[in-house]
Amino acid sequence: MKPIFLDHASTTPIDPTVATAMSEVLTGALGIGNASSDTHAYGRDAASAIEAARADVAALIGARAEDLIFTSGATESDNLAIVGVARGRADRGRHLVTSRTEHKAVLDPVHQLEKRGWQVSELEPGRDGRIDSATVAAALRPDTQLVSIMHANNETGVVQDIAAIAAVCRARDVFLHCDAAQSVGRLPIDVESLGVDLLSISAHKLYGPKGIGALWVSPRVRPWVEPLMWGGGHERGLRPGTLATHQIIGFGRAAARVREQRDSDARHVEALASRFRSGLAGVEGLRWNDHPVHRLPGLLSLSIEGVEGESLIAALPTIAVSSGAACDSTSGEPSYVLRAQGVPTELAQSTLRVAFGRFNTETEAIHASTVVREAVARLRAQDAPGSPAGEGWGMGEAGSLREGARIRCFVRLDTKQNITAIEFRAATCPGVWTVLDGLKRELVGRPAATPTLGGPRDWVRRFNLPTEKLGRLFRVEDALGAALKSAGEP
Ligand SMILES: *Cc1c(COP(=O)(O)O)cnc(C)c1O
Questions:
Q1: Ligand 1 centroid – CA 80 distance (Å)
Q2: What's the predicted TM-score (pTM) here?
Q3: Which protein residues touch ligand 1 with a CB less than 6 Å away?
Q4: Parent domain of 453
Q5: Which of 62-76, 152-166, 321-335 has the lowest mean pLDDT?
């Protein structure tokens, strides 16, 4: 059975009406023509269907259709906005302003520009994740060309006061780009009242297809944006290439559906989120990282004290949730977004992002809170204080949650100094637990003086672990060594 999908901040399933609209394009006459071919009906029909979709997407953000450029997604939109404006304005000055908690699709192009001689101010959010407009004002310089601040954060759902930041930028005649990939499907958005100059959108965050997005470019900033590619002048010269009719029509359909459903979607996912949250009432040591007021509906970020992050995710096989940003969870680094919000490393590593969506049910939300509650209790019991053993046992401890392994080892020896029993209490990842279980099985009966089945480097091979786990295994070796030493002492 597939887990319940609760990861709607990383992507959303395609709405069935969107899938139908797209497959009608792919299998029908509309899928044949190239929208640039105006000599026959195939091309003209594709072009007019695309323009209708463009109008649907534009209406979602209160924009004029002609100011919307289709791209491959918000990553490309962010790159086009940032690098495009930087190139278009390079001879006026080379300073950019952004924040620590932006998506990599903003931070990476900004860092590329930095390598090429641009100066960058990366603003620090407050502990609530928000950037004060006064902080933006203080960072602006006479040579600042662009400010890029996201609307809603993809890890925490914290929503920025973009209108206030925009007012500061307008007053100083600096352009403002806003990555709104997370918020466009979940919050009402109007580019005029937000006051931004460029806005990035992604279809797959609002029940549309993956691989299509848009950049809204205000007429004011349009002359200053350079394309990143050349090849035929499509999309007002900003994004060449044959338009992907089926993707765009799917995007348009998804946008129209969001306009009809956004408010009821928001109420629905907020109800599920509060059901989930109240299901965890009374569990100690929880830190909620989402904002109490300025938040995306349906998105929760929860850091859990005293448990190790990988084992937490592994203990939740029936729900599909993220341990932070989807793009970051393979690196093993605790989230830079949470760190920037003042969440300590050892707490940031045990974070769950739960993002409810249109098709989730109350039963699923209740199930989710139940399994999280049970998993936390189970993991904490594996690491419970005190001793599982009695008199005459040796004990050794090493490591910390920060290092991904907090290990306590208990051993008992017989009169000939052979190991007769061994126990562990630990907070660590499932991989290290396989080593602990292996040691428990294999060390009994061996002499305490030469017990270890080799050391961490041998265990990595023997138990088939990635070498990144070596650091954690050294903590195991330390705890075991200390336990044997204390057991051997009279
Ligand atoms: C998902 C996301 C992106 C990337 O969008 P793609 O369409 O997948 O390229 C960029 N920024 C934010 C805030 C996002 O949530």
A1: 13
A2: 0.94
A3: 73-75, 103, 105, 150, 154, 179, 181-182, 202, 204-205, 213
A4: 393-488
A5: 321-335
